Amino acid sequence: MLKLIIIAFLFTNFHTKTTNGAIINKNVERVIDLSTQLVKISSAITLENTGKDAESKYIITLEPNSIRNLSFISAKDSYKEELKVTETKNELGQVFSVKLNHPLAASRTSTINVEFVLTNSLVPYPSSIVQKDKQLVRYFGNHYFYSPYLTTKQTTSVIVNTRSIENYSKLKPVSQSDSSITYGPYNDVAALTVDPMIVHFENNAPFLSVTRLERLIEVSHWGNIAVEENIDILHTGAKLKGSFSRYDYQRDTSNNHHSIKSYKTILPAAAHSVYYRDSNGNISTSQVRARKDWIELELRPRYPLFGGWRSSYMLGYSVPSYQYLYKGVNNQYALRMRLIDNVFDDMHVEYLETSVVLPVGVTNVKLSTPYEVERLSDSIAYKYLDTKGRPIIRFAKRNLVEQHIQDLEITYEWQPLLLLHEPVLLSIALYLLFIVVIIYVRLDFSISKPEHVKTQ
Fold it and tell me: What is this structure's pTM?
Protein backbone atom coordinates (compact mmCIF):
# COMPACT_ATOMS: atom_id res chain seq x y z
CA MET A 1 0.00 0.00 0.00
CA LEU A 2 2.82 2.37 0.87
CA LYS A 3 4.49 1.60 -2.50
CA LEU A 4 1.31 2.52 -4.39
CA ILE A 5 1.07 5.80 -2.47
CA ILE A 6 4.69 6.67 -3.34
CA ILE A 7 4.13 5.89 -7.04
CA ALA A 8 0.97 7.97 -7.08
CA PHE A 9 2.81 10.86 -5.41
CA LEU A 10 5.68 10.72 -7.91
CA PHE A 11 3.31 10.62 -10.84
CA THR A 12 1.22 13.52 -9.51
CA ASN A 13 4.38 15.59 -8.95
CA PHE A 14 5.71 14.76 -12.42
CA HIS A 15 2.35 15.41 -14.09
CA THR A 16 2.06 18.79 -12.38
CA LYS A 17 5.55 19.86 -13.46
CA THR A 18 5.17 18.90 -17.10
CA THR A 19 1.57 19.48 -18.12
CA ASN A 20 -0.23 20.94 -15.06
CA GLY A 21 -2.69 18.06 -15.45
CA ALA A 22 -4.31 19.86 -18.36
CA ILE A 23 -3.87 17.45 -21.28
CA ILE A 24 -5.80 14.20 -21.64
CA ASN A 25 -5.80 11.57 -24.39
CA LYS A 26 -9.32 11.92 -25.72
CA ASN A 27 -8.89 9.05 -28.18
CA VAL A 28 -6.00 6.73 -29.06
CA GLU A 29 -5.92 4.37 -32.05
CA ARG A 30 -2.87 2.15 -31.77
CA VAL A 31 -1.52 -0.35 -34.34
CA ILE A 32 1.16 -2.91 -33.38
CA ASP A 33 2.76 -4.51 -36.46
CA LEU A 34 4.41 -7.87 -35.66
CA SER A 35 4.68 -9.15 -39.25
CA THR A 36 8.49 -8.79 -39.46
CA GLN A 37 11.41 -9.17 -37.07
CA LEU A 38 10.80 -5.59 -35.87
CA VAL A 39 7.94 -4.36 -33.72
CA LYS A 40 6.43 -1.24 -35.27
CA ILE A 41 3.95 0.67 -33.11
CA SER A 42 2.03 3.62 -34.53
CA SER A 43 -0.47 5.60 -32.49
CA ALA A 44 -2.92 8.26 -33.62
CA ILE A 45 -3.52 10.38 -30.50
CA THR A 46 -6.25 12.99 -30.18
CA LEU A 47 -5.22 15.46 -27.46
CA GLU A 48 -7.57 17.67 -25.52
CA ASN A 49 -6.51 20.62 -23.39
CA THR A 50 -8.83 20.74 -20.37
CA GLY A 51 -6.92 23.56 -18.69
CA LYS A 52 -7.03 27.33 -19.00
CA ASP A 53 -3.60 27.95 -20.55
CA ALA A 54 -2.21 26.87 -23.92
CA GLU A 55 0.05 23.81 -23.93
CA SER A 56 3.07 23.54 -26.25
CA LYS A 57 4.45 20.09 -25.44
CA TYR A 58 3.32 16.51 -25.00
CA ILE A 59 5.11 13.81 -23.00
CA ILE A 60 5.59 10.27 -24.36
CA THR A 61 6.62 7.35 -22.20
CA LEU A 62 7.41 3.68 -22.82
CA GLU A 63 7.10 0.66 -20.56
CA PRO A 64 10.38 -0.13 -18.73
CA ASN A 65 10.74 -3.46 -20.57
CA SER A 66 10.35 -1.73 -23.96
CA ILE A 67 12.54 1.34 -23.54
CA ARG A 68 15.76 -0.69 -23.76
CA ASN A 69 14.70 -2.05 -27.17
CA LEU A 70 13.69 1.31 -28.63
CA SER A 71 15.53 2.06 -31.85
CA PHE A 72 13.56 4.90 -33.42
CA ILE A 73 10.82 7.34 -32.44
CA SER A 74 9.12 10.06 -34.47
CA ALA A 75 6.04 12.26 -34.24
CA LYS A 76 3.96 14.16 -36.80
CA ASP A 77 0.96 16.43 -36.57
CA SER A 78 -2.29 16.06 -38.50
CA TYR A 79 -0.70 17.88 -41.45
CA LYS A 80 2.11 15.26 -41.66
CA GLU A 81 4.64 17.83 -40.49
CA GLU A 82 7.49 16.59 -38.33
CA LEU A 83 7.40 17.39 -34.63
CA LYS A 84 10.60 17.80 -32.64
CA VAL A 85 11.12 14.95 -30.18
CA THR A 86 13.60 15.46 -27.33
CA GLU A 87 14.74 12.72 -24.98
CA THR A 88 14.81 13.71 -21.31
CA LYS A 89 14.93 12.10 -17.87
CA ASN A 90 12.84 12.82 -14.80
CA GLU A 91 10.98 11.03 -12.00
CA LEU A 92 9.56 8.46 -14.43
CA GLY A 93 12.94 7.73 -15.98
CA GLN A 94 13.52 8.14 -19.70
CA VAL A 95 10.72 10.06 -21.42
CA PHE A 96 10.29 11.97 -24.70
CA SER A 97 9.03 15.51 -25.00
CA VAL A 98 7.18 16.38 -28.21
CA LYS A 99 7.09 20.06 -29.09
CA LEU A 100 3.83 21.00 -30.80
CA ASN A 101 4.17 23.19 -33.88
CA HIS A 102 1.12 25.16 -32.77
CA PRO A 103 0.32 25.52 -29.04
CA LEU A 104 -2.89 23.74 -28.06
CA ALA A 105 -5.33 26.34 -26.76
CA ALA A 106 -7.68 25.71 -23.86
CA SER A 107 -10.70 23.48 -24.62
CA ARG A 108 -9.27 22.63 -28.05
CA THR A 109 -8.23 19.28 -29.54
CA SER A 110 -5.38 18.27 -31.81
CA THR A 111 -4.13 15.01 -33.35
CA ILE A 112 -0.57 13.76 -33.47
CA ASN A 113 0.84 10.51 -34.87
CA VAL A 114 3.63 8.80 -32.95
CA GLU A 115 5.74 5.92 -34.31
CA PHE A 116 8.01 3.56 -32.39
CA VAL A 117 10.33 0.88 -33.78
CA LEU A 118 11.50 -1.77 -31.31
CA THR A 119 14.21 -4.37 -31.92
CA ASN A 120 14.78 -7.73 -30.22
CA SER A 121 11.18 -7.66 -28.95
CA LEU A 122 10.00 -10.89 -30.62
CA VAL A 123 11.29 -13.91 -28.70
CA PRO A 124 11.50 -17.30 -30.48
CA TYR A 125 9.45 -19.87 -28.57
CA PRO A 126 10.57 -22.61 -28.66
CA SER A 127 14.09 -21.25 -28.88
CA SER A 128 15.37 -24.26 -30.90
CA ILE A 129 13.65 -26.06 -33.77
CA VAL A 130 14.53 -28.74 -36.29
CA GLN A 131 14.95 -28.02 -39.96
CA LYS A 132 11.35 -28.77 -41.02
CA ASP A 133 9.62 -26.96 -38.13
CA LYS A 134 7.90 -23.61 -38.35
CA GLN A 135 9.24 -20.68 -36.35
CA LEU A 136 7.04 -19.49 -33.48
CA VAL A 137 7.63 -16.26 -31.58
CA ARG A 138 6.11 -14.47 -28.62
CA TYR A 139 5.46 -10.79 -28.11
CA PHE A 140 5.13 -9.26 -24.65
CA GLY A 141 3.40 -5.89 -24.58
CA ASN A 142 0.71 -3.85 -22.87
CA HIS A 143 -3.04 -3.97 -23.56
CA TYR A 144 -3.23 -0.26 -22.75
CA PHE A 145 -1.56 2.76 -24.26
CA TYR A 146 1.17 3.59 -21.74
CA SER A 147 0.95 7.31 -21.08
CA PRO A 148 1.32 9.77 -18.17
CA TYR A 149 -2.10 11.16 -19.11
CA LEU A 150 -5.62 9.91 -18.61
CA THR A 151 -6.90 8.13 -21.73
CA THR A 152 -10.62 8.53 -22.32
CA LYS A 153 -10.91 5.95 -25.11
CA GLN A 154 -8.49 3.65 -26.89
CA THR A 155 -8.34 0.70 -29.31
CA THR A 156 -5.39 -1.49 -30.30
CA SER A 157 -4.93 -3.60 -33.44
CA VAL A 158 -2.21 -6.25 -33.48
CA ILE A 159 -1.14 -7.32 -37.00
CA VAL A 160 0.62 -10.69 -37.17
CA ASN A 161 0.22 -11.36 -40.93
CA THR A 162 -0.58 -15.04 -40.38
CA ARG A 163 -3.56 -17.19 -39.40
CA SER A 164 -1.32 -19.52 -37.37
CA ILE A 165 -1.86 -17.91 -33.97
CA GLU A 166 -1.12 -20.30 -31.12
CA ASN A 167 -2.69 -18.18 -28.39
CA TYR A 168 -3.04 -14.61 -27.19
CA SER A 169 -4.12 -12.81 -24.04
CA LYS A 170 -7.80 -11.98 -23.91
CA LEU A 171 -8.64 -8.73 -22.14
CA LYS A 172 -12.26 -8.16 -23.12
CA PRO A 173 -13.47 -6.79 -25.41
CA VAL A 174 -11.18 -8.61 -27.88
CA SER A 175 -11.71 -10.15 -31.32
CA GLN A 176 -9.66 -11.97 -33.94
CA SER A 177 -10.05 -11.56 -37.69
CA ASP A 178 -7.77 -13.52 -40.02
CA SER A 179 -4.28 -12.14 -39.36
CA SER A 180 -5.08 -9.45 -36.80
CA ILE A 181 -6.30 -9.11 -33.21
CA THR A 182 -8.33 -6.13 -32.01
CA TYR A 183 -8.37 -5.05 -28.37
CA GLY A 184 -10.90 -2.57 -27.06
CA PRO A 185 -12.34 -0.06 -26.99
CA TYR A 186 -11.22 0.58 -23.42
CA ASN A 187 -12.58 3.64 -21.64
CA ASP A 188 -11.17 5.89 -18.92
CA VAL A 189 -7.76 4.24 -18.62
CA ALA A 190 -5.74 5.75 -15.80
CA ALA A 191 -2.24 7.10 -16.41
CA LEU A 192 0.66 4.62 -16.49
CA THR A 193 -1.68 1.61 -16.46
CA VAL A 194 -0.07 -1.72 -17.36
CA ASP A 195 -1.85 -4.96 -18.21
CA PRO A 196 0.42 -7.62 -19.81
CA MET A 197 -0.31 -8.61 -23.39
CA ILE A 198 1.08 -11.86 -24.84
CA VAL A 199 0.77 -13.01 -28.47
CA HIS A 200 2.24 -16.37 -29.53
CA PHE A 201 2.19 -16.91 -33.30
CA GLU A 202 4.06 -18.19 -36.35
CA ASN A 203 6.54 -15.78 -37.92
CA ASN A 204 8.81 -16.99 -40.70
CA ALA A 205 10.00 -13.52 -41.70
CA PRO A 206 13.81 -13.19 -42.02
CA PHE A 207 15.22 -12.71 -38.53
CA LEU A 208 18.49 -11.30 -39.83
CA SER A 209 20.66 -8.83 -37.92
CA VAL A 210 23.84 -7.05 -38.92
CA THR A 211 26.04 -7.51 -35.88
CA ARG A 212 28.72 -5.17 -37.25
CA LEU A 213 28.87 -2.90 -40.29
CA GLU A 214 32.03 -1.01 -41.21
CA ARG A 215 31.26 1.60 -43.86
CA LEU A 216 34.06 3.39 -45.71
CA ILE A 217 33.39 6.44 -47.90
CA GLU A 218 36.35 7.75 -49.90
CA VAL A 219 35.85 11.18 -51.47
CA SER A 220 37.77 12.25 -54.55
CA HIS A 221 37.52 15.56 -56.42
CA TRP A 222 38.41 13.71 -59.61
CA GLY A 223 34.74 12.83 -60.01
CA ASN A 224 34.27 9.63 -58.04
CA ILE A 225 33.20 8.57 -54.54
CA ALA A 226 33.98 4.99 -53.55
CA VAL A 227 31.88 3.18 -50.93
CA GLU A 228 32.88 -0.10 -49.31
CA GLU A 229 31.05 -2.00 -46.57
CA ASN A 230 32.25 -4.94 -44.47
CA ILE A 231 29.17 -6.68 -43.10
CA ASP A 232 28.76 -9.41 -40.47
CA ILE A 233 25.27 -10.93 -40.32
CA LEU A 234 23.58 -13.32 -37.90
CA HIS A 235 20.30 -15.25 -38.06
CA THR A 236 18.69 -14.30 -34.73
CA GLY A 237 15.63 -16.55 -35.03
CA ALA A 238 15.05 -19.94 -33.43
CA LYS A 239 18.30 -21.90 -33.47
CA LEU A 240 18.61 -24.97 -35.65
CA LYS A 241 18.39 -28.15 -33.57
CA GLY A 242 20.03 -31.26 -34.93
CA SER A 243 21.84 -31.71 -38.25
CA PHE A 244 21.23 -29.95 -41.56
CA SER A 245 20.12 -32.05 -44.53
CA ARG A 246 20.83 -30.56 -47.94
CA TYR A 247 18.66 -33.22 -49.57
CA ASP A 248 15.58 -32.36 -47.49
CA TYR A 249 16.25 -28.67 -47.94
CA GLN A 250 16.24 -28.93 -51.74
CA ARG A 251 13.05 -31.00 -51.67
CA ASP A 252 11.27 -28.33 -49.61
CA THR A 253 9.78 -26.02 -52.23
CA SER A 254 7.82 -23.94 -49.72
CA ASN A 255 8.66 -20.25 -49.71
CA ASN A 256 7.36 -19.92 -46.16
CA HIS A 257 10.49 -21.08 -44.36
CA HIS A 258 12.48 -19.65 -41.48
CA SER A 259 15.85 -20.07 -43.23
CA ILE A 260 17.31 -17.29 -45.38
CA LYS A 261 18.38 -18.19 -48.92
CA SER A 262 18.87 -14.68 -50.26
CA TYR A 263 17.93 -11.07 -49.67
CA LYS A 264 17.93 -7.81 -51.60
CA THR A 265 20.03 -4.70 -51.04
CA ILE A 266 19.09 -1.32 -52.49
CA LEU A 267 21.92 0.82 -53.90
CA PRO A 268 21.82 4.38 -55.32
CA ALA A 269 20.60 4.66 -58.90
CA ALA A 270 24.00 6.00 -60.06
CA ALA A 271 26.00 3.15 -58.48
CA HIS A 272 28.47 1.35 -60.75
CA SER A 273 31.44 -1.02 -60.51
CA VAL A 274 29.60 -3.12 -57.92
CA TYR A 275 31.50 -6.00 -56.32
CA TYR A 276 30.48 -8.55 -53.72
CA ARG A 277 32.83 -11.07 -52.16
CA ASP A 278 33.52 -12.95 -48.94
CA SER A 279 36.66 -14.47 -47.43
CA ASN A 280 36.77 -17.11 -50.20
CA GLY A 281 36.61 -14.61 -53.05
CA ASN A 282 33.98 -13.26 -55.41
CA ILE A 283 30.44 -14.62 -55.05
CA SER A 284 29.07 -14.98 -58.57
CA THR A 285 25.49 -15.83 -57.50
CA SER A 286 24.64 -12.18 -56.89
CA GLN A 287 22.45 -10.38 -59.42
CA VAL A 288 22.26 -6.66 -60.20
CA ARG A 289 19.05 -5.21 -61.59
CA ALA A 290 18.63 -1.60 -62.64
CA ARG A 291 15.36 -0.06 -61.51
CA LYS A 292 13.99 3.39 -62.25
CA ASP A 293 15.19 5.10 -59.06
CA TRP A 294 17.64 2.59 -57.56
CA ILE A 295 19.88 -0.40 -58.19
CA GLU A 296 18.60 -3.72 -56.80
CA LEU A 297 21.29 -6.16 -55.76
CA GLU A 298 20.18 -9.68 -54.84
CA LEU A 299 22.70 -11.31 -52.52
CA ARG A 300 22.81 -15.06 -52.02
CA PRO A 301 25.22 -16.38 -49.37
CA ARG A 302 27.22 -19.53 -50.08
CA TYR A 303 24.88 -21.48 -47.78
CA PRO A 304 21.36 -20.90 -46.39
CA LEU A 305 21.27 -19.24 -43.00
CA PHE A 306 19.47 -20.94 -40.11
CA GLY A 307 19.03 -19.73 -36.56
CA GLY A 308 22.39 -19.03 -34.91
CA TRP A 309 24.32 -19.21 -38.23
CA ARG A 310 26.62 -16.38 -39.30
CA SER A 311 28.09 -15.02 -42.49
CA SER A 312 30.27 -12.08 -43.52
CA TYR A 313 31.01 -10.37 -46.80
CA MET A 314 32.29 -7.21 -48.46
CA LEU A 315 30.16 -5.00 -50.70
CA GLY A 316 31.54 -2.10 -52.70
CA TYR A 317 30.50 0.33 -55.41
CA SER A 318 31.23 3.80 -56.79
CA VAL A 319 29.04 6.82 -57.45
CA PRO A 320 29.74 10.08 -59.33
CA SER A 321 30.79 12.83 -56.96
CA TYR A 322 28.72 15.58 -58.62
CA GLN A 323 25.55 14.05 -57.16
CA TYR A 324 26.81 14.25 -53.56
CA LEU A 325 29.54 16.91 -53.48
CA TYR A 326 28.50 20.58 -53.68
CA LYS A 327 30.70 23.64 -54.05
CA GLY A 328 29.98 26.84 -52.18
CA VAL A 329 31.70 30.21 -51.98
CA ASN A 330 35.32 30.77 -50.95
CA ASN A 331 36.37 27.20 -51.81
CA GLN A 332 33.87 25.65 -49.42
CA TYR A 333 32.50 22.19 -50.18
CA ALA A 334 29.67 20.14 -48.70
CA LEU A 335 29.37 16.38 -48.87
CA ARG A 336 25.83 15.03 -48.43
CA MET A 337 25.52 11.24 -48.38
CA ARG A 338 23.56 8.62 -46.54
CA LEU A 339 24.90 7.88 -43.11
CA ILE A 340 23.85 4.25 -43.65
CA ASP A 341 22.49 2.50 -46.74
CA ASN A 342 19.82 -0.14 -47.09
CA VAL A 343 21.14 -3.63 -46.31
CA PHE A 344 17.85 -5.55 -46.54
CA ASP A 345 14.17 -4.91 -45.87
CA ASP A 346 13.26 -4.38 -42.21
CA MET A 347 16.94 -4.41 -41.34
CA HIS A 348 18.43 -4.26 -37.86
CA VAL A 349 22.03 -3.07 -37.51
CA GLU A 350 23.45 -3.64 -34.04
CA TYR A 351 26.63 -1.59 -34.58
CA LEU A 352 27.67 0.79 -37.35
CA GLU A 353 31.08 2.37 -37.76
CA THR A 354 31.46 4.88 -40.60
CA SER A 355 34.74 6.34 -41.85
CA VAL A 356 34.82 9.20 -44.37
CA VAL A 357 38.17 9.73 -46.12
CA LEU A 358 38.49 13.34 -47.31
CA PRO A 359 40.91 14.70 -49.95
CA VAL A 360 44.43 15.88 -49.16
CA GLY A 361 44.68 19.41 -47.81
CA VAL A 362 41.15 19.94 -46.48
CA THR A 363 40.71 22.36 -43.57
CA ASN A 364 37.95 23.53 -41.24
CA VAL A 365 36.08 20.21 -41.34
CA LYS A 366 32.61 20.12 -39.73
CA LEU A 367 30.31 17.10 -39.32
CA SER A 368 26.52 17.33 -39.10
CA THR A 369 24.38 14.21 -38.55
CA PRO A 370 20.56 13.83 -38.59
CA TYR A 371 20.63 12.19 -35.13
CA GLU A 372 23.07 11.74 -32.30
CA VAL A 373 26.12 9.55 -33.00
CA GLU A 374 29.24 8.59 -31.10
CA ARG A 375 32.17 10.58 -32.48
CA LEU A 376 35.34 8.48 -32.68
CA SER A 377 38.88 9.77 -32.86
CA ASP A 378 39.92 11.02 -36.30
CA SER A 379 42.84 9.44 -38.12
CA ILE A 380 45.03 9.87 -41.20
CA ALA A 381 45.24 7.69 -44.32
CA TYR A 382 47.97 7.64 -46.96
CA LYS A 383 47.09 6.74 -50.52
CA TYR A 384 49.11 6.64 -53.72
CA LEU A 385 51.54 9.57 -54.17
CA ASP A 386 50.37 11.22 -50.96
CA THR A 387 53.01 13.34 -49.26
CA LYS A 388 50.42 14.54 -46.76
CA GLY A 389 47.84 12.27 -45.20
CA ARG A 390 44.13 12.35 -45.90
CA PRO A 391 41.95 13.08 -42.83
CA ILE A 392 39.44 10.39 -41.83
CA ILE A 393 36.25 11.40 -40.01
CA ARG A 394 34.99 8.48 -37.89
CA PHE A 395 31.80 7.94 -35.89
CA ALA A 396 29.64 5.07 -34.65
CA LYS A 397 26.00 4.31 -33.87
CA ARG A 398 24.18 1.37 -32.28
CA ASN A 399 20.76 -0.15 -32.86
CA LEU A 400 19.74 1.19 -36.27
CA VAL A 401 16.76 0.41 -38.51
CA GLU A 402 15.52 1.59 -41.92
CA GLN A 403 14.27 4.89 -40.50
CA HIS A 404 17.89 5.81 -39.78
CA ILE A 405 18.69 5.93 -43.53
CA GLN A 406 19.21 9.69 -43.60
CA ASP A 407 21.85 12.06 -44.97
CA LEU A 408 24.91 13.27 -43.13
CA GLU A 409 26.69 16.47 -44.10
CA ILE A 410 30.41 17.21 -43.97
CA THR A 411 31.60 20.70 -44.85
CA TYR A 412 35.23 21.65 -45.42
CA GLU A 413 37.48 24.09 -47.24
CA TRP A 414 39.76 22.92 -50.04
CA GLN A 415 41.97 24.67 -52.60
CA PRO A 416 41.30 23.50 -56.21
CA LEU A 417 45.03 23.86 -56.99
CA LEU A 418 45.60 20.79 -54.82
CA LEU A 419 43.98 18.82 -57.61
CA LEU A 420 47.31 19.14 -59.45
CA HIS A 421 49.22 17.73 -56.48
CA GLU A 422 49.39 14.13 -57.67
CA PRO A 423 49.86 14.85 -61.42
CA VAL A 424 52.79 17.17 -60.60
CA LEU A 425 54.35 14.55 -58.34
CA LEU A 426 53.90 11.90 -61.02
CA SER A 427 55.44 14.18 -63.68
CA ILE A 428 58.43 14.94 -61.46
CA ALA A 429 58.91 11.25 -60.74
CA LEU A 430 58.82 10.35 -64.44
CA TYR A 431 61.16 13.23 -65.30
CA LEU A 432 63.70 12.07 -62.72
CA LEU A 433 63.38 8.49 -63.96
CA PHE A 434 64.10 9.56 -67.56
CA ILE A 435 67.12 11.60 -66.42
CA VAL A 436 68.51 8.57 -64.56
CA VAL A 437 67.99 6.34 -67.61
CA ILE A 438 69.69 8.84 -69.94
CA ILE A 439 72.68 9.17 -67.62
CA TYR A 440 72.92 5.42 -67.19
CA VAL A 441 72.88 4.78 -70.94
CA ARG A 442 75.58 7.38 -71.64
CA LEU A 443 78.01 6.28 -68.94
CA ASP A 444 80.56 3.53 -69.56
CA PHE A 445 81.19 1.30 -66.58
CA SER A 446 83.51 -1.27 -68.28
CA ILE A 447 87.01 -1.89 -66.77
CA SER A 448 88.96 -2.01 -70.06
CA LYS A 449 88.21 -0.37 -73.35
CA PRO A 450 87.56 -2.73 -76.27
CA GLU A 451 90.19 -2.86 -79.05
CA HIS A 452 89.02 -1.62 -82.40
CA VAL A 453 89.87 -3.80 -85.38
CA LYS A 454 91.43 -1.82 -88.19
CA THR A 455 90.28 -2.67 -91.67
CA GLN A 456 92.54 -2.42 -94.69
Answer: 0.86
